[in-house]
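Changelog note: in this version the structure field was regenerated for every chain. One regenerated record is shown below for reference.
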Amino acid sequence: MFLNAKTGQGKELLEKDHLTFDPAMHDEGYAIVPAGAGGLAIIAETSAGFFYGAQTVKQLIRGSGKDAVLLVPTIRDWPAMPHRGVSDDWSRGPLPNMDFLKREIRTLAAYKYNIFSPYFEGTFAYASSSIAAYPGGTMTPAEGRELVEYAAKYHITIIPEQESFGHLHHVLKFEQFSHLGENPHGQVLAPGDAGTLPLIGSWFSELAQVFPGPWVHIGADETFELGLGRTRDQVQQRGLGPVYLDFLTQVHATLAPNHKRLLFWGDIAENSPDLVGTLPKDMIAVPWHYDAKPDFTKAIAPFIKAGLETWVAPGVNNWNRIYPNNNEALGNIRAFVRDGQKLGAVGMLNTVWNDDGEGIFDENWYGILFGAAAAWQSGESSEDAFASSYGLAFHRDSTGKIDQAQQEIRAVHALLKTAGLEDAQDSLFWLDPFSPEGQRTAVKLRPALSQMRLHAEHAVTLIAEARAAGKLDNEEALDALELGARRIDFVGLKFQAADECVDEYNQALAIESDAKRHDEVEDLLYTIGSNNGRLEDIRDGYTQLRELFKQAWLRDNRQYWLENDLARYDRAADLWIGRGQRWNLVIQQWYDTHALPSLADAGLPASSR
């Protein structure tokens, strides 16, 4: 039952259990108390409080159907940070479809996020810059309004982010806008150009008609070109910090008629702490850092000291990775949010980036949910407690196997870091092991290949066992986890198979002159390339994973951009198809002459072992 904390039975139950409903609980807090016959009462003062209390009750259900059991604890709960959001990159490939967006909103709300921030560079359909709105590759105003209306039902506010300084190549590449850039067809708008502020103003005026919330995000990060083109003299005379911060102040004045508070990324301003105080005091600084370092005070303190409202922005470490590096993500989120709370930050934007254009959002829920916990809970969240409860809380997996599967992928990232690589990067998936770079990378990879594959394959097995044990929630995230594990396993197979091709051919070369062993040579040649050969194994990996990737993409995203990714799969498969065809000529030469070409002439690299 739902009861008001201030009146009647709600007030009586709180008094009975010697509970107080503190002022800090008013906006979003709630109490859950036993209410007779194994039931529960949710006591709150606002609709948001009742909503979040209901989300907690959902997590108290164990089992399903006739075996379902409701736990009946006493809980008094409210958020440590009032603003808890996710920033989702819609500008580097993936652009979510509306069905997925609604599922995403429902899921974020279930874990008590109250902000969603789509990130635009050139992917909102502005009437004022329609040339940049690629058909099928933008969110339309009608879709934006639909999302706002849907999210409001789940107590989520949409904060659109439109880059307004840097990261604008996909606008500036068009000739009609190129003259506004620091450099022609570049990345950064040029402060001082007469057309720059009107363009920004038109964008945010259109956004204000679609997104009625109190905030907008103007981006303004990574303005690396500033001072390298049209503003070179200005920056040399005044300094980079003053030129940058003055332009932010001008943007603030330009957007004042929209009556929105402006969020901005804090990375550039962080380098000019003495000047941060010159910014308008109603702006909101969002410092971002994504590594798992022990302390983030330096990133946060300049904005707090300047009297600016501050939100922190950790990240889920998904970018450029086969599957997110949750070792790095959890360490980053834990410490950054902890230090933000300690220093007085009042919000968190947990970030998703899709730098290489291959992002599958359903792979990101582990880091997303840890961010939800860290921003809601006071103080430092426990990585271990989260890791042991994620599977049950998100998938209703009572076996613990989904938690184990996630740990297997985390173990791969740690293993590769120990081997001298950053982690399970997407570049490893695409790297040709026969290339010079592939051979250099193989030297580091070889000691880890077997264990890497065993971890990944065990993750796939654990997922299957958990599914067999009972119906699970959020199956899409499990499909994405399995895709990540299979892609990691393929990396190991690819490098192992490449080494085996070279090893077996060297064996064949060593015995080719011994007529008594010609059958062995033939077997070795067919092991390298045939219906079950190593070359075909690599080909099959790319073609099979292509279909799994396509399915995962279309489950979350629009068709837009997909062909760029599928073209990489096709190109990789074609490479190995060609090598298989070339190998047929090597086999035919053996039959004709009983002589083998050199490694290089056979298309194989010299061994770098």
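Spot check on this record: The radius of gyration is 28 Å. The CA atoms of residues 146 and 152 lie 10 Å apart.
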